[in-house]
Amino acid sequence: MEDKILVHICCGVDAVWALRKLKMDFPDAQIKGFFYDPNIHPEEEYELRWIETLRICEDLGIECIKGDYDIERWIDLTKGLENEPERGKRCTVCHDLRLEETAKLAKKLNFNKFTTVLLMSPKKDFQVLKDVGESIGRKYGLEFLAVDFRKKGGVENMNRLSKEYQLYHQNYCGCMYALFQQRKDKGYISELVSFGRGRIAGSREELLFIKDIRIFAESLGLKVKEDKFKFIGWRLIRSVLTVNKEPVPHRVLPYSSSLKSVLRAKVARSYEEEDKVVLNLNKGNVQIWITDNPEAESLKKPRLFTDPVFITDNSIPQDAKIELQLEADFIPDSESTNLIIGNPDAESYVEFYSDTLPDGSLGFDPEKIKELLISNREKILSGMLSVRIYGAEHCGKLGREYSKIGEKSLKKL
């Protein structure tokens, strides 16, 4: 009987070596993947791990089934276990759920074996996974393959291949409760928060945009390279602007520093500057920009000074009573990515960028980029044309600046 192995997959990093190891150990077997992780939160994180899993599977010629995002079920099953430590009872429930669903699917597909790439992770208890898997295997009449993917340089192979594939490395297992324990000192947990409806620079949404374009370009046989860079990120947590006690719709210029408390102020002076009227307030080194140009929020160059700037299209009387509140967060270890499709030294290139404003405006539709890749595939393959997608455009065109630094370094060599 031909061996048919269904492999539970939690992420691309754990899968990149484990799937190769299975193909080597079972060269004549039919291997299929099953991506199923109901513990992962939020859904954008689930999608990011899925797209990296899909990329690995497609490269290895392995079909992969995407399981439903079922966070509600996981929350119900782990009630009362929220404060359990890593590798505690909550993790056992999580293992049971994922392996049971894998076994059910294996039985439905007439597979005779199943396993999980969780066995790859140094953070997981191998013996616990082995015991759970074998117990569930007996229940469904299947053989559980307790492969120790970590042995004989497995972890080193995983790390090496992850770098070669430029895989997304998650910084938490996906479980929100585990993350609460890791971030006890934070007022909020950025991994679980969506800042606006768009793809702000350094966000999970921006990276998912890049990964989506990448996997599509690779499906066309195009050469692709990610160039990551670190920068100081910024996120708006909350802001309030009232004029004569009436709330005023507004935006906040990126990299505006927080106000310690409610600031009550008046206009000290006003003047015109390019396409806006600038109001200097008599307290707090705060400015209000009055403009009908939404691009005022998109920085054309990095900010050197971080005095708070509020932006509105409402007129404000000179004698108005103004109240402001602003809480923002600076993230010193933010990361964004430039994506190069084709030969970086191509004689011509087309430029895009990956981020948007928080409301989703001033960004590119990924489908438009994919259409361009299809229509220009031959030019890209021949080296005549490349496509560049820059990261952190609205933070002062940081991706473009990083690209220029890289080009200068290459010229020196």
UniProtKB/TrEMBL annotation:
One of its GO terms (biological process) is tRNA queuosine(34) biosynthetic process. Keywords: 4Fe-4S, Disulfide bond, Iron, Iron-sulfur, Metal-binding, Oxidoreductase, Queuosine biosynthesis, Redox-active center, tRNA processing. It catalyses: epoxyqueuosine(34) in tRNA + AH2 = queuosine(34) in tRNA + A + H2O. [4Fe-4S] cluster binds at C10, C11, C91, C94. Pathway: tRNA modification; tRNA-queuosine biosynthesis. InterPro entries: QueH (IPR003828), Rossmann-like_a/b/a_fold (IPR014729). Catalyzes the conversion of epoxyqueuosine (oQ) to queuosine (Q), which is a hypermodified base found in the wobble positions of tRNA(Asp), tRNA(Asn), tRNA(His) and tRNA(Tyr). Belongs to the QueH family. This is Epoxyqueuosine reductase QueH. It comes from Persephonella marina (strain DSM 14350 / EX-H1).
